[in-house]
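Quick one: structure for this chain?
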Amino acid sequence: MGTTTPPRTLAEALRARDDESLAGLLRARPDLLSPVPGDITQLATRAATRASVVRALEHLDRFALQTAEALAVAPDPAPYGTLLGLLTGDGQDDGEQRDDAGAAIAAALPGALGTLREQALVWGDDDRLRLVRTARELLSPSPQHPSPTGLGPTVAEATAGMSPGRLQEILAAAGLPATHDPVSAVTALTALFTDRARMGELLDTAPMEALAVLDRLVWGPPYGEVTPNPTPPVRWLRDRGLLLPVSTRTVVLPREAALHLRAGRAHRVPEPRPPAVTAVAERDPQAVDSAAAGQAYLAVSTVEELLKLWNGGGPPVLRAGGLSVRELRRTATALDVSEPLAAFWVELAYGAGLLASDGEADERYAPTPASDEWLDLPAQERWASLATAWLAATRTSGLVGGQDAKGRALSALGPDLDRSAAPEVRRRVLALLDELPDGTAPDPESLLARLRWERPLRGTAPGDGSDLRSRIALWTLNESELLGITGRGALASHTRALLTAGPAKAAALLAPLLPEPLDHVLLQADLTAVAPGPLERPLADLLGTLADVESKGGATVYRFTPGSVRRALDAGKTAADLHAFLATHSRTPVPQPLSYLIDDVARRHGRLRIGAASSYVRCDDETVLGEILADKRAAALRLRRIAPTVLAAGADPASLLDGLREMGYAPAAESADGDVLITRAGARRTPPRSAPAPVPEGPPVPDATLLGAAVRAIRAGDTAATVAHAPKADAPGTPPGALPRTTPAETLVTVQAAAMTGSAVWIGYVNAEGAASQRVIAPVRVEGGFVTAYDHTADELRTYPLHRITGVAELAE
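Got it. Here's what it folds into:
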């Protein structure tokens, strides 16, 4: 009396938990909530399924996983001392370093065991620790799936099915007394291998070559191949049971013998502590922030340039989706970056919802309407939106150029680039950088080692062929530098604010570090203009139309050419507009050659008119039309004179415009009414598009409200499923799980009595869909063929039709 009975099953262990502990389990393993279990038994069953256990094991750190692996090779159940011994060893090879490791393991083991218990992977008291059966099967050794510890099967498992005569031979060779009982023989051999003194005496008689064979097998894999006529050292080991046959050509080192050779340790190197992230450099925090701010501005400018590049309609969409290699190379050349970097910027703009496919028959990529709103924001807010989108994106540009599981090439903006682990890895990398002192750049190898310790089973993905988390972490470090998340390898102060306080605070910290936009340029006599810094957007837009960018850097150099001036005139500007614009925004006088260039192009602009006939050329100067007809380069346009001032063409108007411009003319398109058509750059936009949704890694972590409701529902369902009910005198022995059965009159009388006394009853109920369930209700009112009652199973007040109640029974006292 007064003692607590140990739980016999996982369900009993979960039933003994308090509500906070159950909520912790559901928070750690949210897949158990889809759908909400009906009771504790369903919760335990679901928690032991293979898919759920695999997902839970993947979220363990290395030492918690090593603890589970040690339990998988320990007796079931195992006392705490046995588990500790498997992790620390039996002390036979102790040195000062081993003593320190043992102390660290002893200090960390309660926490690791607590994690396994919280996630329902381990249950039972410290004297009877049990690993759930599914986890034991996943982590136990077999020839097809060796144990992560490198241990083989036990003597009992390896000798199962062995003939009694062979067992007697092994006992005789090992110097053990003969017994005709196979169970006693296995017990005697196991006792020999677990007795350090006797095992040491046996190994002292072993040939040196036999000990060398054991050294190759002791830390795994424990399996080896033998020939039909093995060598004397192998024969010596086989005769004494130190190598037991698995098949005609395979032998295994039994677990008990391996543990003796390992001094009782299940792992060669237990890792109770996470490896520290070390620093490679310590820099001035202000220099870090300045470098990150400069890169942040460059990132925003690069995305702006990409949007301008695809303003009038970007590259076509491949039939299978994505961007072709040729178009990616063309984009990289235009942005003056490498192809991998071009893929990163394209994916970043796509992930931020600034680029998308237009959905037309001739499908192309183009800026979205949201890109115009983004361009109107201050630079710091544009950066914050890009950084926020990057943090949450599951699309991984580092995979571009690789192959999927079927050997198909992965293209930028194409399918199969989502990796659900990417957001968690990015945030974890930045969190580790945040833990370092300001201005500290980490050693990438130590960072990867820490990530591998935290999630040792989360690495590879189908088609990736390597440690995916490590690759994402390295990409994160590189992309962070490109985005201005880090500066010179260290985390910037505005990024720390982004991680803790949100985009608004990060933008406020970044704003003072960004250069102020300028409202002027410096015009030079060689038909160039120098922008000594970033320009205000209206100035940059018009100057980008009027001139071509020649070089970038701290200052941007623009060059004026006849083609660029014609482009401004095509956009509806007049020569007077361009002269006034340059005079207003130049800190130097407008050079005479530039004025002459604008006037000369404007004088020739529009003299030729292109319209749709299929197409035609119209010009008041007959001599010009004659020159065009005489030019051999015009042969492809299939021109013929149909009037002194009109030429008809076989090419469409767009091709005709391009062809004549390549010949050096400055034609203008006109409408059916004869009006000049103005070509406005950047007019093409996709329909409204939302940014691509990240692919979730698993079920979302429920909030506190949902957790509380789920725990109450599970408790209520468990109460209904396990509550004792009083058997009817005329129908004793109701089968377990069967619905109660009473006549309609008995049902009515019982619920009316319960409503009068305020007591609870047990009912069977069949809903409108025909689903049957058992419920515990406290009737409040019975009238009109309905009973209104508080349903303990659903934890709410409900009304039930009496004709759907199969029966009712009183609860036992």
